[in-house]
Amino acid sequence: MVKTVIFDWAGTTVDYGCMAPVKGFVDGFASIGYHITDSTARAPMGLAKLDHVRAIAKVLDADISEDNIQSVYRVFESKLMETIEIYCDLNDYVIETMAALRSRGIKIGSTTGYTAPMMKKVLPVAKEKGYSPDFCITPEEAGKGRPYPYMIWRNLMEFGISAPREAVKVGDTAADIAEGKKADCWTVGIIMGSSELGLTRDEVSALSEKELDDNRKRVIKAFYKAGADYIINDLSELLPIIDDIDRKLKQNSEHILLTPGPLSTKYSVKNAMLTDHCTWDDEYKSITKSVLNDITAISANSDYATVLFQGSGSYSVEAMINCLCPVDEKTLFLVNGAYGRRMLTIARNSKKEFGDLTFDDTQPIDVTLLENKLINDDKIKTVVFVHCETTTGVINPLEKIVKVAKKYNKRVLVDTMSSFAAYEIDMPGLDIDAIASSANKCLEGLPGLSFVIAKKKLIEESKDRSLSHSLDLYDQYLGLYKDGGKFRFTSPTNILLALRQAIDEYKKEGGQKARFARYKENHDIIVKGLSLLGFKPIIAAEFQSDIITTFDLGTVDFSRMYAYLKSKGYIIYPGKLTSLPTFRVGNIGNIYPSDMKALTDVIREYLLFFA
Ligand SMILES: *Cc1c(COP(=O)(O)O)cnc(C)c1O
After folding, report:
1. What is the mean pLDDT of residues 146-153?
2. pTM (2 decimals)?
3. Which of these is catalytic: 3, 8, 172, 433?
4. Sign of the CA dihedral running 412, 417, 420, 424
């Protein structure tokens, strides 16, 4: 939540139009023979005053000597000091706004271009009129003025705030916005009474509606150009902005996701997104190539290629099924959950010849029944199944299934979406033809990219076979491999950079074995903890994966428990079984045994006091 709003002084909270300094600059430069307009005098407004003199001098004549600059400044300073107290009228809505902010516990900070002796005159007058911020600092006290962020940081230190995003800077000049941006806080430009507008109240009243509107547009443009996050007419519009920023901050607060994807991810992974890349640039293409090679190396060798697709996991499952099983060949789907059924829909839509062997959602695929089927139906050329059925958490016997299929010379395609990178999947060793997975499961990347790893030979045979242009595995492969890492269509560049980082994190952790060990520990803790609280897993232990677990909900109300856990920062998952009320807890992602223990404690607390 926003903890402080830091206001500029002249032009923002006092001195409508920021009039006090202008005359001083004009007189100062006149004293060395330069006759400048008010708008020239105003242009660098917001800087520390000596810097302001330098900035004007630079525009007039690069050769003005330091002695002359100092003498202009002395004239300016004595002029300003004479009149500064008359220019302490409060801007509109200052008193109400400060009272409202304080009532929310928000600290009122301030920064300025004035010197400490100048502020010594302003502060008591403003206070008398009803405005007295909690802190005020000047450029020389902070070491440097705007656009440096140090005055803002000194405010944060004073208030004991460590996150600059919990601070909002409000000002009336481009220099104010620059200061706020450099400090990494939110920035708000104010129009009425601003130095950017540069008009007194009387001058504003004399304008026609159209003239005022044109002036306002000019100011908006200047703030926009400076990079302001928000622009307001006057302080009466500030509170809704604080609400909006609060909403954004809340949205950014961490929830631990105990779901099967998207997952909780490392900060470094999300941070990797914060750069813009174009898609055809060689540097970007080489990052893409490195991602392809690293993914292939996790489960395969150079006989295989990884083909990335823009889209969630299902896009790659669809590309794999459509491109690697010819329409005129029969494909057998082994189904024991929602993701298996999704594959049947894909097959149906593509008008393929296919059959299925369907099992109960709580049971693994039965290899004996598969063998019988293959013996009795030699039209079948390809066998397709899901490795870990995320619907329930059942893990199917990959090795046994593949061995039987291979015994009868079938092609084998596997949806290893939620198992890839955690379970060992030896594609060449088992002679698996293709698998599909995505960035946002056990690789702990972000959603938006998925991939097929397939035998290169098989991909090359699939030329011209795809029913879909966007999901054409062969075409996509050509771009990525023959065109040096190029996506055919717009690449989700930020998501790819995040995936690059996620793979680096994966390697740092120790790769597949280390990641599996962490997930297994997570899983063991949650199963043991919840069993003690009376929630039993519904899948028999020997078929239960270490990815996600379905628990019998009993008589507990899911939505109430969900809401309680969410309020404590944990997101669990509803069950998907129609036969009995269940809930699911995923244990993959950037989560650790300590998180699983903490979750168990929160669930115990809920059952004891709130169920
Ligand atoms: C996550 C997942 C998918 C992909 O689903 P999307 O909704 O496309 O992300 C496919 N299969 C399994 C087993 C999964 O866990």
Report:
1. 98
2. 0.86
3. 8
4. negative
